[in-house]
Design goal:
Length: 354
């Protein structure tokens, strides 16, 4: 579904002629054909969402180099199914949708509404959700229907699903339902990360999506990745050192200064390298706020697979979970022992004053 990419793109800010869009293709390069995320920016609606109305315009190839993806981020480009198997699954799924009356009742017929109309509504909803995130406000289904969807309420499920997916993949923002009765939603950064990179500028955009991508690449490269591999991936997305990007700003400064200062990344010289080369690792704040298992589960979810489909990284993630559990137990034992010793000392001092 080529149209969905234009919907995401319409919500993006202006200021760069460069690509805003292979981000999601990097994360899930073999996603089902219904999702093609190469972003091509159009004008966002200014009347209702002025804070996200500025736009950027770009043009990217709709496919992503398999050679590049496999060399840069094997986990992200891995897929347990072969292309033939994926094609067969899509045909079976399509056949089931045609034959199953319950499925056709559960989801509205998107063909009855022009794709460009759905795309426009997805873009409008993304802009609306970004505004809600920026102002730290909750939103409800009723509000979204009345403010954005309006006369296309029968298509809310499709529009909301695509807008939520765009928020996750491009901006790293999760749209989570907190009250199923009133259908109230809260917006927050994914994977427990607490820094979104937004500044006071009203057109500043969340940068957590790119951070998740970088952390994922590092994880997939056994916790340490050469700088050149990071730039190979980012260049394929239209992100280039020294060039201002419409969402992420100047990427080299973001990676080597901002996120290093925020302790999400560690940027160090490769030992004994001449001329000097550098590499990236997870920083202490990344380890404190999220886990490898959360990253893997997120990537598996958006790729429509299961974490166990990537056995090497799944085992690594489970090892980390076990180490964290053991560390917590050890800390608890140490705290209990210290409390007991302190209590004993106080008791001895009380009964045996010197």
């Amino acid at each position: 579904m080529v149209g969905f990419r234009q919907a995401c793109e319409s919500s993006l800010p202006t200021s760069s002629p460069h690509s805003c869009g292979c981000l999601t293709r990097v994360i899930m390069p073999r996603a089902p054909k219904r999702r093609r995320y190469t972003l091509e920016i159009t004008e966002a609606e200014e009347e209702d969402y002025s804070s996200s109305s500025s736009t950027c315009s770009s043009s990217f190839p709709s496919s992503f180099s398999s050679t590049s993806s496999s060399s840069c981020y094997p986990l992200l480009s891995s897929n347990p199914s072969t292309p033939e198997e994926e094609e067969k699954k899509e045909e079976e799924s399509s056949s089931q949708e045609e034959e199953g009356p319950s499925t056709s009742r559960a989801l509205p017929d998107t063909e009855s509404l022009p794709r460009n109309v759905i795309d426009d509504k997805v873009a409008d909803l993304v802009g609306f959700l970004l505004l809600k995130y920026r102002t730290k406000e909750l939103t409800t289904r009723v509000e979204m229907l009345s403010s954005v969807i309006r006369e296309h309420q029968d298509h809310f499920a499709v529009i909301f699903s695509e807008a939520s997916e765009c928020m996750q993949l491009v901006y790293g923002i999760d749209v989570k339902e907190v009250d199923p009765t009133s259908h109230t939603y809260v917006l927050g950064t994914n994977l427990g990360l607490t820094y979104d990179g937004m500044v006071s500028n009203e057109h500043s955009m969340p940068k957590t999506g790119l951070l998740i991508l970088i952390l994922s690449i590092i994880f997939s490269e056994d916790d340490c990745v050469p700088e050149e591999k990071i730039w190979e991936a980012l260049n394929a997305m239209g992100l280039h050192a020294g060039m201002e990007h419409c969402i992420f700003g100047e990427p080299r400064e973001l990676l080597t200064k901002v996120w290093v200062q925020e302790q999400y990344l560690e940027y160090r010289q490769v030992r004994n390298s001449e001329p000097a080369r550098y590499e990236f690792l997870w920083g202490p704040r990344a380890h404190a706020e999220t886990t490898k298992l959360k990253v893997l589960e997120f990537l598996a979810q958006i790729n429509g697979s299961d974490p166990r489909s990537f056995p090497h990284w799944y085992e690594e993630a489970l090892r980390e979970e076990e180490q964290r559990a053991q560390a917590r137990i050890s800390t608890t034992h140490d705290t209990t022992a210290m409390a007991s010793a302190s209590s004993s000392a106080m008791s001895s001092s009380f009964f045996c004053p010197q």
